[in-house]
Design a protein that fits this description.
With 221 residues, the chain is α/β, with parallel strands linked by helices. It has a single domain, classed as pyruvate-formate lyase- activating enzyme (Alpha-Beta Horseshoe), CATH 3.80.30. The chain contains seven helices and nine strands. A seven-stranded parallel sheet has the order 1-4-5-6-7-8-9. It has a two-stranded antiparallel sheet with strand order 2-3. Helix 5 (175-187) links the parallel strand 8 (155-160) and strand 9 (191-194). The longest helix has 13 residues, at 72-84. It binds iron/sulfur cluster. Iron/sulfur cluster binds at residues 18, 20-22, 25, 27-28, 65-66, 95.
Length: 221
């Protein structure tokens, strides 16, 4: 059975807004549709939503924003709650690890970058240089090309997805790109999770891989 990632990993959208301007941005479309913010390019926060972190679980904290745009007090508050709830796993993503400096990160804060193409690979090095933490992950979504033999040392979990929606210039991931990435990730011992669109539209259920890390499994018990 294919797991919908939302069944396991809950979104806590305490921060809404981002100015990176990705062509395929789903968050911007959702924010506009539901009138969540006046100006999506100017992030705003409702820190009360972070209280959900007190209940053990796996929470994705940057589904409507990018960590590099979070004010220090927003980051601090989320870290404070994660420290108070050690079984909780908090997942953060950024596309601008070069603009972040963090060295006092709780062990249950999972820090990652998005990589969609070879042009993004610099983010891997920048992530580890600028954010010092115990648990790193990478999201390869949407995957736009074969990434070759990349260095995934120190990465514990990867998510792979294909572009969704019907945006102009849409690129579907190719099976061989995904197969190659899976082989590389296996060499490094990463857990691998395919998003459901990748399973249904590209890889097929028989080739589905949907692994969580031990810490995530523990948080969901
Ligand atoms: S980084 Fe994320 S939230 Fe920001 S524009 Fe890109 S897809 Fe949207």
């Amino acid at each position: 059975m294919v797991i919908c990632i939302k069944d396991k990993i809950k979104n806590v959208n305490a921060v809404i807004g981002c100015n990176i301007g990705c062509r395929y941005c789903y968050a911007k479309a959702v924010a506009k549709r539901f009138h969540l913010v006046d100006d999506f390019t100017k992030p705003i926060a409702d820190l009360h939503k972070l209280e959900r972190l007190r209940k053990p679980g796996v929470y994705f904290l940057t589904g409507m924003s990018d960590l590099y745009l979070w004010k220090k007090e927003w980051v601090d508050k989320s870290f404070e709650l994660l420290r108070e709830s050690p079984r909780t796993v908090g997942i953060y993503l950024t596309k601008a690890p070069n603009k972040i400096k963090l060295d006092d990160v709780p062990d249950n804060a999972w820090m990652g970058v998005t990589i969609t193409s070879k042009a993004d690979l610099w983010r891997l090095k920048a992530l580890k240089e600028n954010i010092k933490c115990k648990n790193y992950h990478i999201t390869f979504e949407p995957l736009f090309e074969d990434l070759g033999d990349i260095d995934l040392s120190g990465i514990k979990w990867i998510v792979i997805g294909t572009e969704t929606g019907n945006c102009k210039g849409k690129i579907d991931a190719k099976k061989e790109w995904v197969d190659h990435l899976v082989n590389v990730a296996r060499e490094y011992g990463c857990k691998i999770f395919f998003k459901e669109d990748l399973v249904y539209n590209i890889m097929g259920e028989e080739k589905s891989i949907q692994e969580l890390t031990l810490e995530m499994e523990e948080a969901l018990k």
